[in-house]
Amino acid sequence: MASKRALALALLALLLAPGAGAGSEDCASCPTVELEREGKPIVAVKTSPDDVSDVFVIEYLDVQTGELETFDVEAGVARVAGVDLWLDARSRVEGELQPGATVWAVLNPDLEDDAGRAYLLELRPHPQEAPAKRTLHRFLIYDPEPFRTEVRFGENTRAFGHVARVERVKEVRERVVLGDGVVRYLEAEDRYEAEFALKDRAVEIEQGKSRAWGRRLDYDNASGLAQLMGPVSLERSGDRPLRGRSESLVYDVDKESLTLLGAVVLEQEDRTTEAEQAYIVESEGYAYLYGEPVVSRGRDGEVRGRVVRYRLDDGELLVLDGVEAVFEDAP
């Protein structure tokens, strides 16, 4: 059973999360977490009732950046910019870090060892040289089947998954991770942890007539880019439905565009088109395909070019650059 402190954190999340109670028309009272990108709201919404899942947790953690002065995994100790830390097998360490490196350390100040050292949750490289101490707000949301956590990117794009982790360090770092998995309470550490599972079609992105699926979505509010880990599958509804696939996908919040990356294949009726990238502007109804070359094959022949405009509703092609060949079937 969760401790009184952990339960209090869960209650605080419901009371203090920005945008709490300002849910969508589908769930007007659902608790939410809100970021903002150039005036555009990025909102994560818990959709399941509390008798299904009561996991909407906020954690207040410390972030220490600066020089990694000591780092000994076997001894379970580290020191960052004068702050002594302890770690174990559950601590997340990114990269081959050595003393002298500039790092980002996330620590739990409420979990100390006998020597008074705070517990190290996460350690990774960091480009900032000047030491600094900040507060990290981490929100965890879990919506099990048949419910899904919803992340809204402005008015026109939504993403869905079962687990969301939202992290905010004021004016430094704001990120959202969305995927499948569970949120567990770790009694020994008196905190919650999101465990993501990389499953195909775990995350769905919906924009206009287009829907895409992938394994996990990682959004960085500083860049405004959401990376969807592949394999990616795409479907677009209409009189001539479109299906596609790629190795990954990027959603640009500012441009409201979807970009399929790597081994892109689009299939529409009898036409199959292959490219290295496909830049999709749903509001315009077009995709711009790039490759060396883009190759499109159908009953009426084959088209090749370096840049091709593809009309999403009917598959009409216009080669904008690098026409190589157009072959038509003999009568």
Structure description:
This protein starts with a helix and ends with a strand. By secondary structure, the chain is mainly beta. A five-stranded mixed β-barrel has the order 3-4-5-8-7. Among the domains are: 77 residues, Copper binding periplasmic protein CusF (OB fold (Dihydrolipoamide Acetyltransferase, E2P), Beta Barrel); 125 residues, Lipopolysaccharide (LPS) transport protein A like domain (lipopolysaccharide transport protein A fold), CATH 2.60.450.10. A hairpin with a 4-residue loop joins strand 21 and strand 22. The chain is elongated, with a radius of gyration of 23 Å. It has one helix and 25 strands.
List keywords for this structure.
single chain, 331 residues, mainly beta, OB fold (Dihydrolipoamide Acetyltransferase, E2P), lipopolysaccharide transport protein A fold, five-stranded mixed β-barrel, 1 helix, 25 strands, elongated, disordered N terminus, signal, OstA family protein
